[in-house]
Amino acid sequence: MQQWELRAAFARALSDMYGREVPAYQTLLQVSAEVNADVLAKHGADAQRLGSIDRVTAERHGAIRVGTPEELRQVGQIFAGFGMHPVGFYDLRDASSSAVPVVSTAFRPLDADELARNPFRVFTSVLVTDDRRFFDADLQARLETFLGRRELFPPRVLELAARAEAAGGLDGDEADELVAGATACFALSREPIDRSWYDELSRISAVAADIGGVASTHINHLTPRVLDIDELYRRMTDLGVTMIDEIQGPPAWEGPDVLLRQTSFRALAEPRVFTDGPGELRVRFGEVEARGIALTADGRALYDRMLAEVDTRRASTGRPRAEVAAEVWRESLPPTEGALDHAGLGAFTYRATPDAAARLSTLLAARGADDPAAGAAPATAGHTLVRGHPQLDVHALVSAGVAVREPIVYEDFLPRSAAGIFQSNLSDAGRRDDALTGTARDAGWLSDALGRDVADPIVRNDELTRASLQALNLEIS
Q: What is this enzyme's EC (predicted)?
């Protein structure tokens, strides 16, 4: 089995296991599939603008939490066996008003063809045990001692994952063993929980207790992708499922969907065994997502400014967030994919049409082939494609039917949205002493902890855009 086949099998196995553990997840899958089928029937090919229906239906992202850099390094090795690489750095410690003492990355495929085969991704958080805003020196020492005694990932699973990474896959029984062994690592443990220790951590942060108060890790949520998240929210509510208060991320509006919208049903009370008898915990929930177009660095900067403007207007008016956000989006974001591209805000790739050569000849003739300066204004920097014709950039080629513009799907996450989902599913905000200074964490620290480079998603998308432009230039020059 090649790595993408291992990855697909791993995603299916986790989904099956999580469905058995959290029956409401099955309801979420069913409603997601129904919504997707209805959107496809209504909009046809346009519904598959950001991925085929087969990909969207199969798509999942998972979320797990670990306690130490060593545990992070080990889980990074397991995901590497499935062709999943760390992408992005997310600091959730200041992203919400609740105490969420973790930093995170997401493991996923990097190459476009690998994403198309199976885009399984796992949002992975690690506890920051030395952040004094949350943990004093005594609690840090006891927490690290507890974490140091546990083994989350058996040596045999790590060995098989390393071999799969080195060989690009595994054969026969070993492939099955890796999938089964890795899946078992994320099953909900039935080992008794020390209630006093768990409660002590819970008073600091429910997330910290879920990581450091138990002897194992587990899938915290498993997320299907839906084509109309507003409709899914309505249908789940109609079924009597308690959803969080709102959809996180960009608002619903008339223009192109960008980045990521997420929501979930609230964490369910699950029976757990404690050292002093039976009890229950609310730590796992059912999340669902709708993915949009990735943004460039300029687009992300605009997104941050729009969020700040939404906060300012809400503070002065008290109006609902979704209403204010849609207003800000209409004022600030281009209303079409083409305008988003022209403004340099959206991430796209480009490919030649079947009759590109003929269309290019017609375009050059119309613009005056003997005068390279004739016609339109100079091309966008970095987008000149036809040597000797600086007026022709990729936008002109798309307009003339020489090339086709294709959006790059946003494959990653948003710190504020992730923290918002976490916060919405917490019964207690916990404690954070903002008078103290937080411990520094960044992508460099994360790379060192993993022993692997953490990719920058914006840089990666820029690389995809440039590669497509180079390929297009070769085809039409």
A: 1.13.11.93
Given a contact cutoff of 8 angstroms between Cβ atoms, the answer to whether 201 and 213 are in contact is: yes
The pTM score is: 0.91
Closest CA to 7 of 111, 151, 104: 111
Tell the residue number behind the tokens 């997601």, with chain if given: 32
Let me know whether 67 and 216 are in one domain. yes
**Averaged pLDDT score across all residues of the chain:** 91
| Cα 193 to Cα 216: distance, rounded to the nearest angstrom | 10
Task: Dump pLDDT digits (tens) for 407-440.
Answer: 999 999 998 888 777 766 666 678 888 889 899 9
Check if the beta carbon of residue 51 is closer than 8 Å to that of residue 409: yes
Q: Same domain for 243 and 114?
A: yes
Rg of the chain over Cα atoms, rounded to whole angstroms, equals 24
Structure tokens at 278: 């039976």
- Residues in Cβ contact with 94 at an 8 Å cutoff, skipping those fewer than 6 apart: 438
Q: How far apart are CA 25 and CA 222, in angstroms?
A: 8
Q: Is 386 exposed, middle or buried (0-12, 13-18, 19+ CB in 10 A)?
A: buried
Residue 273 β-bridge partners: 278
Give which of 47, 261, 83 is closest to 166, Cα–Cα. Answer: 83
Give bridge partners of residue 265 from the DSSP assignment.
Answer: 243, 286
Amino acid sitting at position 365: A
Q: Give the Cβ contact number of residue 192 at 10 Å.
A: 15
What does the alpha-carbon distance between residue 333 and residue 255 come to, in Å, rounded to a whole number?
Answer: 8
Select from 316, 338, 360 the last residue of a domain: 338
